[in-house]
Design goal:
With about 240 residues, the chain is α/β, with parallel strands linked by helices. It has one domain: Glycerol-3-phosphate (1)-acyltransferase (3-Layer(aba) Sandwich). It is about 45% helix and about 15% strand. It has a seven-stranded mixed beta sheet with strand order 1-7-6-2-5-3-4, sandwiched between helices. The mean pLDDT is about 95.
């Protein structure tokens, strides 16, 4: 029975993704930035409802920018969950842009792309991020650089924090967790780590009822006189504290 339900949810999710694609393709060119942001947030909230994933928001999401959100990274669901809690522009690896359908969804949602292997491209991205922060936008990064199982945190990379230092903008720590609603324990169902395929992770998530996504917003931190490596360590500690 779980497989039948999951297959139905997968079909409903595919239709929801298709509607998002059509919205970006045909409506976004005629909408203001604020209207596009509202559409992205509503779409993300809708996908969570379709897939029976509850959303719990703790703390205070930023009312406005400039601010850089620094979150831990667990799953392919993280971006959807954060958009559902509060619209933000993500910084993502460049190859996502070429993914069928997903690439258009990510680009339509305002994603900034970075080629991690290229130092020059990383510097370009930092400059674009700083310009976006100076323009009052809300950006988001995953400083771990890859996903973990959600039980521990990987070290935070510091390079992208330079954008906040250059723009004299705050960084707000954000903790993501997936919880089993029945037991209150950490749920590993949405995890997407190692060599696991995206299909396997999605299927496990859809066959696991009672998953709740928790987004915890901490207190924004200003650059002050900290170096970016020191700041990265302090942000990691803040995110870890939010998970407890």
């Amino acid at each position: 029975m779980k497989s039948v339900v999951a297959a139905w949810l997968l079909l409903r999710g595919a239709w929801h993704v298709a509607k998002g694609y059509l919205t970006i393709r045909f409506q976004f060119p005629h909408l203001s930035s604020a209207e596009r942001e509202a559409k992205v947030q509503a779409w993300a909230q809708g996908l969570l409802r379709v897939w029976r994933i509850d959303l719990q928001v703790l703390g205070e999401p930023p009312a406005q920018g400039p601010v850089l959100l620094a979150a831990n990274h667990i799953s392919w669901l993280d971006i959807v969950v954060m958009h559902a809690a509060r619209y933000c522009r993500f910084v993502s690896k460049a190859d996502v842009k070429a993914w069928p359908v997903i690439g258009m969804l990510a680009t339509g949602a305002g994603t900034l792309y970075i080629t991690r292997e290229s130092r020059r491209d990383a510097l370009r991205t930092v400059h674009h991020m700083a310009d976006a922060l100076k323009a009052g936008e809300v950006l988001a990064v995953f400083p771990e650089g890859t996903t973990s199982n959600g039980l521990t945190l990987l070290p935070f990379h510091a390079n992208l924090l330079q954008s906040a230092i250059s723009a004299t903008a705050p960084v707000q720590p954000v903790a993501l967790q997936f919880i089993d609603s029945a037991s209150g324990e950490i749920s590993l169902a949405p995890c997407y780590v190692g060599d696991e395929t995206l299909v396997a992770s999605v299927w496990r998530t859809l066959t696991t009822p009672g998953v709740r996504a928790v987004v915890s917003y901490g207190v924004p931190q200003w650059p002050e006189s900290r170096g970016r490596r020191e700041w990265a360590d302090e942000l990691r500690q803040a995110v870890d504290a939010l998970r407890r």
